[in-house]
Design brief:
Layout: H1 3-24, H2 29-35, H3 43-57, H4 61-75
Length: 76
Amino acid sequence: MQNFDKQAKVHDLEKQIDQLVYKLYNLTPEKIAIVEGRSSNGNKTRQAADKQLKAIEALPGAILREVFDFEEDREG
């Protein structure tokens, strides 16, 4: 697998993880926009994004490992 292909696969996996996290936390489209930095509400937006990112970072590593193990198992 070439480096470009690997980067594309990692990008796709990151998007899948993002969607799982958004679903896990029941984020609204507005909150997702804040987390992704697409909202323009100034400092309140940044504070809300920081809060959401902390919640995402607190996501148990086991869930992330399960996602990656699942992907590796599918390839094998």
